[in-house]
Amino acid sequence: MKTVMEGSHAVAEAVKLARVQVISAYPITPQTHIVERLSEYCADGSLDAKFLRVESEHSAMAALIGASSTGVRTFTATSSQGLALMHELLHWASGARLPIVMAEVNRAMAPGWNIWTDQTDSLSQRDTGWIQIYCEDGQEALDRTLQAFRLAESVNLPAMVILDAFFLSHTYEPVDIPDQAKVDEFLPPYEPKFLLDPGNPCAFNQLAPPDVYMEMRFSIQTAMQSAIGVLEEIQNDFSEIFERSYGSIEPVECDDADIILVTSGTVTSTCKEVIEKLRSAGEKVGLLKISLFRPFPGEAVRKVLSRTRKVAVVDRNCSFGSGGIFAQEIRSALCNVPDHPLVYGYVAGLGGRDITPELLEDIYWQTKNTDFPELDSFWMGIREVKDGIICSGS
Amino acid sequence: MELSVPDREFMYSGHVACPGCGAAIAMRFVLKALGEKIIMVIPACCWSIIAGPYPMSTLRVPVLHTAFETGGSVASGIKAALEVRGDHETTVVTWAGDGGTFDIGFQALSGAVERNEDFIYICYDNEAYMNTGIQRSSSTPYGAWTTTTPGQDWKKMRKKNIVEALVAHRIRYAATANIAFPEDLINKVKKAKNMKGSRFIHIFSTCPTGWRVPSEMSIKIARMAVQTNIFPLYEVENGVEYTINYRPKGYLVKEYFKLQGRFSHLTEEDLDQIQEMVEEDWKLLLRKAGVFSGS
After folding, report:
1. For chain A, how many structural domains are there in total?
2. Does the model's ipTM exceed the 0.90 cut?
3. Gap between the Cα atoms of B119 and B91, Å rounded
């Protein structure tokens, strides 16, 4: 049955349907609606979970590390500063091989204070060993949350389901809430592969000298790489049960495209309209939506992009001194392909600035009319600033 | 008093502590008192090393080694998961050093105690960051040399009173204990085990390496800390009911100080001043315990 709800509540519905057992969270805008809704479900008994209202995001993640190590299904949600505060424990969760699932609502990092959408918070965590899935709309937020539990528990790695602030977290859309029975079929109760048990005393996460540490790290890398194939199987099961299908990437009109735009998150929906308009004007343009960022589906991306001439990557994030982060990943995926396409990087929409259809069209035309990308990243829509800090070499 | 120390050992023979380590002695007694139905959380501290490297472990109980500042929060999560799984018997115990308790882990501990999480938090206190090589913590006493308070920069701030900070949370149970008083220590751990809610035990644990004392002096020095009133043995229930477990024998603090290399730079004047500070703290404790006659 379809219900009109905001993206945050779609995530909360999924967490309830997943029969999560321990939730721990700390408030931060724009994530708060998720945990408020879950608090209500725990209070009225519709979700039989323990909810720990801890004193920081760091403690939220730490509590889940304890709970997950004790063999239960766990969830938290955060944004921006909160995610940054968790950073140390994000490494801990993956190193300890715990299938914790987190909703992360993309919000710009301060200063200046900015609660609006920007992917730099989650992408700054790309090397922590967390699976990262970026969502386009409310339905995907719900569905991916369900998938994330199964994927995380299959490969024993934590997973982040990522939503744009406001454009997705606070936007009301029709969302199909699946039946509990179907969800139970898709996502059986969590069966931990190891846990803290007085009947079988083991030490976890202890001192690991050089002769063992590297193999432990290699097993994380192996598990992460296997997650691409495992997610494919999970997506197949998902579409059989729920009759909705997803891929790690989603190509639109890419087969004969000379230029392919690459997007993630809610910009994808805007871009789909732009592609349609440009196509009807005779432009051979395609779109590639990236959902799975970690592990990066390089093989699938190469299959779609290798045959085109130019790729234009739209990044709502920036790694200062380099450029857009999705653009970096696309370049590295393509660099060993003979005669690979040119990759144009565009940074746009930071701190919640709107990415309009007109801006996406500008990106298309700039890509088409430029023979070679002059910069690692073009910053779109930058106004002239008169009173910035003047820096020069000595 | 009848001595009832359980025979059963929960530490295997073999660990990597320094000779005379008070933290190793403290662990042995605490595990004897707790028995096997526990899960232990060890945030970064000397015991992260003492327990041994993968795939070995000194301890016969399940242990979750965890990040420095997470002793209170990780234990909260374990307890929640046990409840969800229907296990209402297993006791969750955090075992942390003074750095992980007084300093970097204080926020998580305070949060857990404010929520009255059902667990026992044990701080073995060796009065500095010993695992990293003797750096000062907020538990380092006034007057002490450490590698970050060298020469004339010896520590000139008082030791943080962690028990009183937790008593201010109206914690269910808080107690001090000492490796030189094993019956008292074991009784307090057993008492704590039979309670619900947040419980805190602060164990004075000599560090021969960091305090610059011979390893065979470990117990003697710990005993003198109590006998001089530097580390009184007492317990507090529900944040209000104080019980003092040991009455001092009237030793002067300088008897304790002169045995330790970390205090060797102090002058007679410094020691007189410290004597006054210790007496002031003792009188304050007596007042809280409802003893107004002095001692």
Report:
1. 2
2. yes
3. 7
Interface of A with B (CB under 8 A): 21-22, 24, 49-50, 52-56, 58-60, 62-72, 74, 88-89, 92, 196-198, 200-209, 212
A300 & A219 share domain? no
Interface probe, candidates A24, A70, A200, chain B, greatest B C-beta count within 10 A: A70
Contact call for B76 and A66, based on CB within 8 A:
yes
Q: Both A259 and A332 in a single domain?
A: yes
Q: Give Cβ neighbours of residue B34 (< 8 Å, ≥ 6 apart).
A: B10, B61, B91, B93, B120, B189, B193
Asked if B139 and B128 count as a contact pair (C-beta separation under 8 A), the reply is yes
- State yes or no: pLDDT of B295 exceeds 80: no
For B62-86, write each residue's pLDDT tens digit: 999 999 999 999 999 999 999 999 9
Separation in Å, CA A283 to CA A259, A275, A359, A361: 9, 9, 17, 11
Instruction: Quote the pLDDT of residue B293.
Output: 53
Per-residue pLDDT at A229 exceeds 50: yes
Do A293 and A229 fall into the same domain?
Answer: no
Chosen from B8, B60, B66 to mutate, greatest number of chain A CBs within 10 A: B66
Mutate one of A55, A88, A92 to test the B interface: name it (highest B CB count within 10 A). Answer: A55
Range of the domain at B40: 22-288
Report chain B residues whose CB lies below 8 A from the CB of A194. none
On whether any CB of chain A is under 8 Å from the CB of B9, the answer is no
pLDDT, residue B294, reads 47
In this complex, do B111 and A22 lie within 8 Å of one another by their Cβ atoms? no
| Contact residues, B window 241-260, toward A, CB-based 8 Å cutoff | none
Domain annotation covers residue A388? no
Instruction: Write out the E strands in chain A.
Output: 2-6, 22-25, 50-53, 74-78, 101-106, 131-134, 159-164, 172-176, 203-204, 249-252, 259-263, 285-290, 292-294, 310-315, 342-347, 378-379
* A394 has pLDDT over 60: no
Structural domain boundaries, residue A166: 2-194+208-242
- From B63, which residue of chain A is nearest by alpha-carbon distance? A203
Residue B39 has pLDDT above 90, yes or no: yes
Angle at A20 between CA A19 and CA A25, to 5 degrees: 145
Contact B77 A200 (CB under 8 A): no
Q: Please give the average per-residue pLDDT across A224-244, as a whole number.
A: 98
Same domain as A216, residue A73: yes
- Choose among A60, A72, A204: nearest Cβ to B84: A72
Residue-wise pLDDT tens digits, A29-41: 999 999 999 999 9
